[in-house]
Design a protein that fits this description.
Length: 200
């Protein structure tokens, strides 16, 4: 049985993988990667296959997950599937209810480039922000599509809500990039972001 010290020692990645298992499905590492790409990646990150398998080993060692080998219908090699244990369900429920909520840490590559705008030409900054607009719109559309695909899955009601949040977030990022492009144009014209003339 996992003790309290071991429980506290689990990293966020472990809780995320255990959370994916908490929906009650028996999942392979491939399944977990697919599910994380359709949900976690929009608001946290999507772990690599190596991270997933490393966390699954940790969770099994903690007694929070169990696994078994199952035969494939296609004749390919058997695969290992994982299921959350009762102890794991108790632990992830307690973590979700009681763990301190860490504030999000923003690491915004385009804004770091904008911060160094004095080293770039305005057109270079426009290109960076234009690419960010395209990325944000692509992510927004992906979130919409994934939410639509999950709408009939009753177990995914709350993950679907996070996909709606992601849709709004990436729409906001897209619009913020457009506003920054306007600000760059204003700066190039000798005005600040509020339309006031700069300089003497």
């Amino acid at each position: 049985m996992a003790d309290e010290t071991n429980e506290r020692a689990l990293p966020a990645t472990s809780w995320a993988v255990l959370g994916l298992l908490s929906f009650g499905e028996e999942l392979s590492g491939y399944d977990l990667k697919k599910w994380s790409d359709r949900s976690l990646r929009f608001f946290y990150w999507s772990p690599s296959f190596s991270q997933i398998y490393s966390e699954l080993k940790r969770l099994e060692k903690s007694g929070y997950a169990s696994s078994r080998m199952v035969a494939q219908d296609t004749g390919t090699r058997d695969k290992r599937v994982y299921r959350i244990t009762d102890e794991g369900m108790t632990a992830v429920r307690e973590w979700a209810r009681e763990a301190p909520v860490d504030p999000p840490v923003l690491k915004h590559g385009p804004m770091l480039r904008l911060w160094l705008g004095h080293l770039l030409e305005p057109e270079q900054m426009r290109e960076v922000l234009g690419r960010h607009q395209e990325f944000a719109e692509q992510m927004r559309r992906r979130a919409v599509a994934d939410a639509e695909a999950a709408k009939d899955e009753s177990a995914w009601a709350y993950p679907t809500l996070t996909l709606r949040w992601a849709e709004r977030y990436y729409a906001s990022e897209r619009d913020l990039a457009a506003a920054m492009l306007d600000d760059i144009d204003a700066l190039a014209a000798g005005r600040d972001g509020r339309g006031r003339t700069l300089g003497p």
